[in-house]
Design brief:
- The protein is of the alpha+beta class.
- The protein has five helices and eleven strands, in the order αβαββββαβαββββαβ.
- The strands form four sheets. A five-stranded mixed sheet has the order 3-6-10-7-11, sandwiched between helices.
- A hairpin with a 4-residue loop joins strand 4 and strand 5.
- Helix 1 packs antiparallel against helix 5.
Length: about 180
């Protein structure tokens, strides 16, 4: 929850959470969000101030099977789902459809898959976050692995936005910009 609060502090509000659920929205409180059934990765428009925390091990929602299809991360032809979500975010940011974004990843392989992440201010979290998870037994917490948060700044006043990101996120870990 404190990482979501930080995202709101940096961007002022979250307009869109394209990889979300009703449970997640109790914390994120985005103006708009897409559940897996709405397929935010492939079938929806992205806009405004966007918060992205990709689902792990998944790259598309199979409507026929009504579930996310897993990737084979070791396959030379496929990449991490986190890289696919970042690529979509980056493309929408370049096209000025996304004004700015906070991207959270607990996929250390992003360093290998998508080195464009180093073109943006990034915070390597010093502690392993506890994530809220909706399970068959109800809502619980689980610890994830090494994680980072990056900011795709607005193109207007980007230096000011970068410093706001640094000021907010330096409490969580090392910020590189």
């Amino acid at each position: 929850p404190e990482l979501i609060q930080a995202a709101n502090m940096v961007m002022g509000n979250i307009d869109l959470d394209p990889a979300s659920s009703k449970v997640a929205q109790e914390y994120v409180q985005a103006d708009s969000f897409f559940t897996p059934q709405l397929d935010g990765l492939n079938a929806q428009q992205w806009f405004g101030r966007t918060y992205v925390f990709p689902p792990s091990g998944c790259y598309f929602f199979d409507k026929k099977l009504d579930k996310w299809r897993p990737t084979r991360a070791s396959s030379p032809s496929l990449v991490s789902s986190h890289a696919l979500w970042f690529r979509k975010l980056y493309k929408k940011w370049l096209a000025d459809e996304v004004e700015q974004a906070i991207y959270f990843s607990n996929c250390p392989d992003m360093i290998r898959y998508e080195q464009k992440i180093f073109d943006f201010p990034i915070c390597f979290l010093r502690t392993v976050p506890s994530l809220i998870k909706n399970t068959s037994e109800g809502i619980g917490k689980h610890r994830t692995c090494s994680s980072f948060v990056l900011h795709l700044q607005p193109k207007i006043n980007s230096a000011e936005a970068t410093m706001r990101f640094v000021d907010v996120y330096e409490q969580f870990g090392r910020v590189v910009y």
